[in-house]
Amino acid sequence: MEISAQQLAELLIGIARAQAAIVHGLENELAGVRSGRVVPALQNVAHLRDHPEPTLVDLPVRVLLTSMGRPIGPDPGGIAKDLERLCAAKNR
């Protein structure tokens, strides 16, 4: 089985939506947990300050942060381009 960058991007978005739903549920039960603990921890793991461009390790966390921060969600085309760039760099 071969998976395209677009398909992998859509899969990452689906996983991020499920994770965002869990964070939303926690926020409903424990007010302030999202902004006080979860988002700062995710931002740290995403290496936002260290890496302006995502790495393969950072990309899923960044997709989750985007899913939590925007009503329209992440852009599958942009994620697919990042995946293509990152995978091409690994194959050199």
Looking at this protein, list some descriptive labels.
mainly alpha, single chain, 92 residues
Describe the protein.
It is built from four helices and no strands. With 92 residues, it is mainly alpha-helical. The mean pLDDT is 92. The chain has helices at 5-29, 33-45, 59-69, 76-90. Helix content is 70%, strand content 0%. Helix 1 (5-29) packs across helix 4 (76-90).
Distance between the termini: 23 Å
Rg, please? 14 Å
Shape field: globular
- Tell me the number of strands: 0
Please outline what is shown here.
70% of the residues lie in helices and 0% in strands. By secondary structure, it is an all-alpha fold.
Could you give the topology of this structure?
Blueprint: H1 5-29, H2 33-45, H3 59-69, H4 76-90
